Amino acid sequence: MKHLAQKLITILPPVLVLVAVVAMPTFAQNPQAEVKGPTVPAQVRSDQIIVKKTAPLQFKAFDILDPTNRKPISRDTMLPELPNGKRLTAGQYYDELNKLERQLNGQGRTLKPANEVKPAPLSKFELQTTPVPLATLQKQAQALRAAHLANTQFRALNLAEVEQTHRQFMMINPALLKAIATPTSQTVHWVKNWNYNLGDPSVISGYINGKIELNGTNNATSVNGEVDAGGSLFSQSFELLRVTGNLNAPRTGTMNVTLGASVLGNSVYNLNQNVTTSWSKSDSISKTLDKSVTIHFSLGPIPMTAKIGAQGTAGISYSVAVAPVKASAYVGPFVHTKAYAQVGVDIVVAGAGAGANLTLLNLDGNLSGAVSIESDSIGRANFKYTDSYSQNLDMLDGNLYVYAYVYVPCWDIPPWCKQEYDWNIFSWTGFKSGGVVFNDSKTLSLYAQPVLKQ
Fold first, then answer.
1. Cβ–Cβ < 8 Å for 138, 421
2. Alpha carbons 298 and 252: distance in angstroms, whole number
3. Would you tell me how many other CB atoms lie within 10 Å of the CB of residue 371?
4. In a 10 Å sphere around its CB, with 0-12 CB exposed, 13-18 middle and 19+ buried, how is residue 159 labelled?
5. Read out DSSP for 199-253?
6. Each residue's pLDDT tens digit in the chain (454 positions)?
7. What is the Cα–Cα distance from 395 to 390, expressed in whole angstroms?
8. Using CA atoms, how far apart are residues 97 and 36, in angstroms rounded to an integer?
9. For labelling alongside 398, which of 213, 385, 412, 435 has CA 20 to 30 A away?
């Protein structure tokens, strides 16, 4: 199998492995991530691995030969150092090699080169794979693409523009506030939800969901919203980012604004502001993150342990404003994450690694909601309320695989070649799309007759 990425390996703790080989990462490990979720154990079901077997082979042991010249040697002969830095006698090395050869023969594989000729420095075989549910992925992708309004594009939140809008928004007409004290049964209750999933949670998946709610009476207006983004690795789900907010703007008295953000379930931002006059605030926050699971499995005859996770950044930009009977919020949530893997084995004549070039979830969103009471040109009091949500998505784009390799004799200098066996965990072209999910603007009269003097 062609590797689509450079190899991403680190040495696992000694309690887990004896040997692991270090290679250049495709996505830099970040041990200093600001928010780290606990690494939790996960399970690989037997039906999630398809082993590519052929007819069993008759086992024939390797002869004890010098790996540099193919001449017979004694079991006590010390062999050249393995690439992992270990030194073994010929007896120790060939005993381990023959044990693996016997097990591979049972799956129709062999560590020996074809026709006993000189092996290649590196030979690769895809030994097992996890089925990719292409039909399900395509159906999910179609639903995601259809959620975007036709001929629309994502537009990122521009705080400078919003702040200018909010300066106008917070202007108050005192005569209107006095007039709308008149009771009315007319109210606003407007709710929009979205919920998108992509992938198979038992292997790898991502999701985005959220809600915005606008409410209004003649005594108060409010905006409530939330955004959640996360994923799953081998049935272990995790919340990458959660944002919640509430703006409450009564006609008189104390107004309140709350806004919170959490990454991997850890609070990273909290705003709780009480005000009695028009007020606005803008801010941004970004945190690096790391969330992972561990799995135990065998790649052919080689028992292995892998740590598979997601790393990246998550955060928000926002601007909020309140004034009597006016509430407005703009929030730009973002999540940028890639998958990574660390793999180890406990066999001295073998090593392990992983390749990761997989975008788990890249989300850039722009959510806004506003509700206010305004007077029109003839002095009529109206609810004006708007909401919109647009997003740019890149999900499950790329591949993730792990591999094990065995040091076999080259019969030359250098003395060691590799036979590599791969497990292709996930590979797909991914989903990439952006656009507007909804964009509403409405006006509703509070009263049948004008309430302000002309």
1. no
2. 67
3. 26
4. middle
5. EETTTEEEEEEEEEEEEE-SSEEEEEEEEEEEEEETTEEEEEEEEEEEEEEESSS
6. 333 333 333 333 333 332 333 222 233 345 589 999 999 999 999 899 999 989 999 999 999 999 999 999 999 999 999 999 999 999 999 999 999 999 999 999 999 987 667 788 999 999 999 999 999 999 999 999 999 999 999 999 999 999 999 999 999 989 899 889 888 999 999 999 999 999 999 999 999 999 999 999 999 999 999 999 999 999 999 999 999 999 999 999 999 999 999 999 999 999 999 999 999 999 999 999 999 999 999 998 999 999 999 999 999 999 999 999 999 999 999 999 999 999 988 899 999 999 999 999 999 999 999 999 999 888 889 999 999 999 999 999 999 999 999 999 999 999 999 999 999 999 999 999 999 999 999 999 998 766 665 4
7. 16
8. 40
9. 435
Per-position b or e across 380-389, b if 16+ CB within 10 A of its CB: bbbbbbbbbb
d(CA 372, CA 380): 14
Kindly give, in sequence order, each residue whose CB lies less than 8 Å from that of residue 206, ignoring residues fewer than 6 positions away. Answer: 197, 198, 199, 229, 230, 231, 232, 360, 361, 395, 396
Q: Give residue 117's domain range.
A: 1-454
SS3 of residue 154 by DSSP: coil
Nearest-angstrom CA–CA distance, 326 and 373: 7
Name the token pair of 266.
Answer: 């850890």
Other Cβ atoms within 10 Å of 174 Cβ, number: 8
Stated as kind and residue range, the H or E segment containing 279 is: strand 279-299
Q: How many domains does the chain contain in total? A: 1
Residue 326 CA to residue 185 CA, distance in Å, equals: 19
- Residues 6 or more apart whose Cβ sits within 8 Å of residue 104: 110, 111, 300, 301
**Token pair belonging to 171:** 């202007």
The predicted structure's pLDDT at residue 182: 87
> What is the maximum alpha-carbon separation in the chain?
110
Q: What is the number of other CB atoms lying within 10 angstroms of the CB of residue 233?
A: 25
Long-range Cβ contact pairs of 168-175 (< 8 A, separation 24 or more) = 169/321, 169/323, 169/326, 169/328, 169/370, 169/372, 170/278, 170/279, 170/280, 170/321, 170/322, 170/323, 170/326, 171/278, 171/323, 172/278, 172/323, 172/324, 172/326, 173/374, 173/375, 175/375, 175/452, 175/453
Which two structure tokens, joined as six digits, stand for 197?
A: 């999933």
